[in-house]
Amino acid sequence: MDTFDNWTVQVRKGVLELCILNALREQERYGYDLVKMLVDLPALGITEGTIYPLLSRLRVQGLVETRLEESASGPARKYYTLTKEGKRTVELMNFHLETLMKGIRSLQ
User: Fold this and answer.
1) Rounded to two decimals, what is the model's pTM?
2) Is 20 exposed, middle or buried (0-12, 13-18, 19+ CB in 10 A)?
3) I need a surface site. Which of 4, 11, 30, 34 has the fewest CB within 10 A?
4) In order along the chain (108 residues), what is the average pLDDT of each group of 10 residues?
């Protein structure tokens, strides 16, 4: 793996949590809905197998909560929504990233 490839892997790891939390800011979503949204993000390059363990970790950390809902088209869906702590955390993360990006751009 060359330097650029290694760097992009590290960046993706760093922003994936933020992407999930941002996707849940306005509304609850079920797991596969999140997968579809995130897989379509340019340059993120993630797979379904990446998201579910991360959702589980975010739940354990108290940033998201879940509920099950029966579905007429298949198995029950697990919906994810931000907790109060999740909402606070995503705001802090977005502010930090925006500040960091401004700093990086000022170096150009």
Assistant:
1) 0.88
2) buried
3) 4
4) 89 91 96 89 83 94 96 89 98 97 96
